[in-house]
Amino acid sequence: MRNLAIIPARGGSKRIPRKNIKEFLGKPIIAYSIDAALKSKLFDEVMVSTDDEEIAEVALKLGANIPFFRSKDTANDYAGLAEVAIEVIKKYRQRGKEFNNVCCILSTAPFLNANLLSKSFDNLINNKFDALLPVVKYTFPIQRAMQFDNNKIKMISPENLTKRSQDLKESFHDAGMFYWVETKIFLDESRFWTDNTGAICVSENEAQDIDTLEDWKIAENKFRQLKIEK
């Protein structure tokens, strides 16, 4: 069984300039994703999909492959992860390389480790899922979510106002770390999600979506705390 790790790392990040190679507690943040993929020994190829020569140079030094650069079509602000991954898979096919499964690993996932990748892959295969991703449980019932309406706060689902928390189903959100998918199904669906998608749970302290500088600081604080606890 052949597996491919794709780490998308575009050069034109806006909210956090040079985000993918910005230093995160002593090393470029992309290093954590590359290191986890390599140490897991799950992949026949660990590649970084980028349009940026500096990112490519950093990735190569960290042990990843850069067999080709990303096209202009997938290097703009509007291209999604699925489009990037599809382009990569097709370019490998043109070079005669086929993969059974693909894992799209975010370049800003410092909490990722080889053990989590291995556990998630076993889950994917053993349960015969089409796709799988890590998720984090919401700490507060989202059934009690509110929104502003003409400057007044209102329940989105008023029927849940007086229900006990324990009577409401637990809800989860994407941990923003990686996405496993069977290659054939992915190319048919063009997305990392099907009706047969599994998940592996991680704690809120072991994941952080990083979109802003504030998110970045929160992630560094969480990471330091995890090191202290270990």
What's the level 1 CATH class? Answer: Alpha Beta
Task: Please name the CATH architecture.
Answer: Alpha-Beta Complex
Q: How many helices in DSSP terms?
A: 6
Biggest pleated sheet: 7 strands, mixed
**If you consult CATH, what is the topology?**
Spore Coat Polysaccharide Biosynthesis Protein SpsA, Chain A
Element order: H for helix, E for strand: EEEHEHHEHEEEEEHEH
Name the CATH superfamily classification.
Spore Coat Polysaccharide Biosynthesis Protein SpsA, Chain A
Task: Give the integer mean of the pLDDT values.
Answer: 95
Structural class determined from secondary elements: alpha/beta
Integer count of domains: 1
**Rg, Å, rounded:** 19 Å
Task: Tell me the distance between the termini.
Answer: 34 Å
Which percent band covers the strand fraction? 15-25%
Basic shape: globular
* Unreliable residue runs: none
Number of strands: 11
